Amino acid sequence: MAPRQCPIGAATIAFSLAVIISVVSAAAPAPAPAPANKNHTVGGAAGWFYNTSSVAPSANYSDWAASQTFYLGDFLIFNTNTNSSVVQTGNDTTYSLCDASNDDGNQTFLWGSDGGDSNSSNPEVLEIPLIYEGPNYFFSDTMDGEQCQNGMKFEINVLHGNGLPPALKQPPSPSPVPKPLPPTSTGGDGSSNENQTSEKNGVEGIRGGFVLAILGMLSLFLTTV
Ligand SMILES: *[C@@H]1O[C@H](CO)[C@@H](O)[C@H](O)[C@H]1NC(C)=O
Ligand SMILES: *[C@@H]1O[C@H](CO)[C@@H](O)[C@H](O)[C@H]1NC(C)=O
Ligand SMILES: *[C@@H]1O[C@H](CO)[C@@H](O)[C@H](O)[C@H]1NC(C)=O
Ligand SMILES: *[C@@H]1O[C@H](CO)[C@@H](O)[C@H](O)[C@H]1NC(C)=O
Ligand SMILES: *[C@@H]1O[C@H](CO)[C@@H](O)[C@H](O)[C@H]1NC(C)=O
Ligand SMILES: *[C@@H]1O[C@H](CO)[C@@H](O)[C@H](O)[C@H]1NC(C)=O
Ligand SMILES: *[C@@H]1O[C@H](CO)[C@@H](O)[C@H](O)[C@H]1NC(C)=O
Ligand SMILES: *[C@@H]1O[C@H](CO)[C@@H](O)[C@H](O)[C@H]1NC(C)=O
């Protein structure tokens, strides 16, 4: 009977339209996915080491940095040893001087060994969260800036991405705080003549600056909630 075919035909058309629409919408480009947070191993497999014989770093860090894209909430992983340090700063003067000792500002932090007076070469892994958008500078201040002057340095631009993950809004303690050196007993030549709890010029200022930065961010966090 002809009248019965009509609703079937309409249903078929409606179904076909639904299929077409769903196929078309599935094929339509999805909004660009927000980048997932990533860990960047500094220098790749070569790590963050300085060769005192060849007077050269183990990698070209500016080339390495140029190959990466950095977002808030990513981590930099420094595979290094206590012969080198990592200063993180937003202060381009300090960066260009390869010297943090006259920088008491709140943008400059020392990670890892304070270096310089350490003859040991204990392995060390530093995991540094990227919590500042914009230019971030990294260098080793060990050997009075000599390592930095010979290439132990790089700058990156941290993009907003998804913004700072909640877990990093209040920086986890103690991980962003400079870590103590590993115990002397794990080896290293000449380690007996170093005092691992002593602090050199500037280090106290850097650590004090970091405490202020934490307090600042904490109060910012508390006033925004
Ligand atoms: C990146 O490193 C951090 C700090 O060690 C760690 O908590 C996190 O799980 C790592 N993420 C990935 C994707 O490996
Ligand atoms: C350091 O440099 C010296 C001289 O160029 C080289 O013989 C040595 O293998 C290097 N050490 C490492 C760990 O790369
Ligand atoms: C940047 O560092 C220099 C010394 O390296 C210091 O004189 C200056 O006050 C610092 N600026 C800020 C904003 O902390
Ligand atoms: C390492 O120790 C030796 C002997 O104690 C000393 O002469 C040398 O200056 C030290 N090196 C550094 C980089 O502190
Ligand atoms: C650590 O530095 C000392 C000199 O300060 C050097 O003799 C030694 O080879 C270095 N070790 C490594 C693994 O770079
Ligand atoms: C790293 O490589 C670039 C060229 O890609 C060069 O201009 C720069 O001087 C190198 N840096 C070091 C420290 O060798
Ligand atoms: C290391 O330095 C700290 C602080 O200056 C001091 O209290 C301690 O006695 C020193 N330890 C050694 C073994 O020299
Ligand atoms: C550092 O200090 C400046 C000026 O006092 C302030 O505007 C800024 O928010 C501070 N940054 C942090 C990370 O505390």
From TrEMBL:
<feature type="signal peptide">
    <location>
        <begin position="1"/>
        <end position="26"/>
    </location>
</feature>
<dbReference type="InterPro" id="IPR003245">
    <property type="entry name" value="Phytocyanin_dom"/>
</dbReference>
<dbReference type="GO" id="GO:0005886">
    <property type="term" value="C:plasma membrane"/>
</dbReference>
<feature type="compositionally biased region" description="Pro residues">
    <location>
        <begin position="168"/>
        <end position="183"/>
    </location>
</feature>
<dbReference type="InterPro" id="IPR008972">
    <property type="entry name" value="Cupredoxin"/>
</dbReference>
<keyword id="KW-0732">Signal</keyword>
<protein>
    <recommendedName>
        <fullName>Phytocyanin domain-containing protein</fullName>
    </recommendedName>
</protein>
<dbReference type="InterPro" id="IPR039391">
    <property type="entry name" value="Phytocyanin-like"/>
</dbReference>
<dbReference type="GO" id="GO:0009055">
    <property type="term" value="F:electron transfer activity"/>
</dbReference>
<dbReference type="Pfam" id="PF02298">
    <property type="entry name" value="Cu_bind_like"/>
</dbReference>
<feature type="compositionally biased region" description="Polar residues">
    <location>
        <begin position="191"/>
        <end position="200"/>
    </location>
</feature>
<feature type="domain" description="Phytocyanin">
    <location>
        <begin position="38"/>
        <end position="160"/>
    </location>
</feature>
<feature type="region of interest" description="Disordered">
    <location>
        <begin position="163"/>
        <end position="202"/>
    </location>
</feature>
